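Worked Example 4.2. Consider the chain below.
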Amino acid sequence: MYISKKDALTWFTFFSSLPDEEELMTYQQEIVLATFAQIEAAINARDEELMAAIHNLKTLEGRTYYVGETSRFPLGCRSCLLGNGLSAIRKTNKCNLHCKFCYNYGELDAIPPVGEGLWEIGGTKFYERDIELLLTVQQKPTGISYVYLEPFMEIEKYYGIIRIFHDAQIHQHLYTNGTLASRETLKALGSAGLDEIRFNLGATDCADTVIENIRIAKEYIPYVGIETPMTPAFYDAFFKKKQQILSTGLDFINCAELHLNANNIGNYAGENMYISRHGYISPIWSRALTLGFMRIAADENWTPVVHDCANRTKFARDLNLRGKEGGWFGASNYACEFSRIPYEVFLPILRDDSFSFLHEEALPEGYNPGDVFA
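Applying the procedure from the previous section yields the following structure tokens:
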């Protein structure tokens, strides 16, 4: 069904007015999915054109795209996309910033604590003394990551567990907004055996203090990079300080396609959105900015790798992880993060005269808004 943009707008206006508890009829669900397919097809066609313009675009076994020296591609991402997964280790339930793109936006003061002296790994609580048991009982992961929320709020607690996993020869990387880091703590992380650190430079609009911490981190930690949701604000801020950032000697820049959940989607009200494979909902500008960013990096022969960490990459990640876990053929945890589709967020793109569907047809009999269909 190649629904027209006009008919899609009429129907989605109606769907947006329904009470949350009201379920759509089967033919109405077909209309929703046809609309999503039309929007996604147009976005995919746009992205293919943008990718075609990138000089020397590379792929990691078809699972993601990047430009730059393959040797600088982050090992944490290799673990995620090619290895037996990337186990997230959680400890800190607080953050010193409130970023509009944060998945915990609006609830940062209500995040449950992990527990004193405990670490959460795979949904289970461990003391440091339990890690040896874990490593002898279960298969070692190719990589682990320290997330949730800002580790430098209590970074001194991390050194011991990093040493344990370093001795077990497991690649480790840590995420931070970089504002609380110092030469002393970055040196301590390197001495403990941290392999990789990723700075969310977009959290501070590319603050000079964080850029300097990237430079310092390169003295002590083998792989140093940026990982930030790609937004217009980050794009603009980066290019105002491009030479300053590139001169730090960083190894990679992961440009994450921004996807939204119930916590942060309100911060992007009015933006044109699409839904990828009925899964992640994203503003259509996020990946377009990434691909433009990559084209500049390739044309100017930047030293760091620039990685297109798009919704497609997240899909490949979940396929890989489930496959390594012994899941059935086609199994994946990739899914929509909303319990009910927020139909209203697709109204702006359906009202946008500059956005067109690739091909349109009249609705079949019984699918028009005025038809009675039982």
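Residues 212 and 342 are 41 Å apart (CA to CA). The chain has a mean pLDDT of 96. Compare this with Example 4.1 before moving on.
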